[in-house]
Amino acid sequence: DASETELLWSSSGGYLVLFETGADPSLYTAAGDVLQLDLPSRSVVRASWHPSTDHLLYFGTSSGLIQYDLIEGSATALEQTDASSILLDASILTFFDNGRQTEVQQIIGKDKRVLALLPSDEYELVLRDGSFLLLQNDNHEIFLLDIDAEEPILLQREATSFDWLADPRLLVFSDGSEVNVYDAYNHDTHFLTRQSLVIESVLWHPIGQHVIVQDTADIQAYEYDAFANDRFITTLLDDIEIEQWWLDDAGEALYL
Predict the structure, then answer these.
(1) Which of 109, 192, 223, 244 is at 20 to 30 A from 35, Cα to Cα?
(2) Are 139 and 121 in contact (CB under 8 A)?
């Protein structure tokens, strides 16, 4: 499955790591030479590069983060990390259950700060755009955070499907029965539609003027205007069973 395979270049383009779920990572130089990775025998679940240091590679494992120095050929397990820890720029984002709430923590060296307090649960970082983080828990709830804001938790809603539009930073989400759009700049939410059929997925058109909504029978395009009383709705496909669909990058073609 191509979706489970990643090709990741280092910050200056000197190295390339091939990571595939369930397999050992493969490492290459830009010239195509194969480099050997001497990793501890732990299950690797993700890989990422340091944002500015070309020779530092990070692996997420079932027990925490490992920093691999390509120059020294050494692997170091990072303290205070676990399976949920993620590299965030030159810092580490991790989650800690204090017995009452889940702390979203940022660790820089030996310094730690709490970014937000969330209901006690397991969380996954599903999207990052600058200072905006989108988290999802096991109860189909999403949490949109701005880690630079005084009140970092911008949105907490039940959502089975969602999509982020980077510019102008709009989050469309659905709980399966209705669709809403959250404006992260103006901090307000706009209702888009409510359906009698189960809404299975929502997706921004790349231009950002429409939201594509799939229910159990149709795919429709809804005009998005935050202040519109009436919206144009275009049915793209109807009365059809759809297992998977996607748009091309230009938003000109829909594939099934």
Answers:
(1) 109
(2) yes
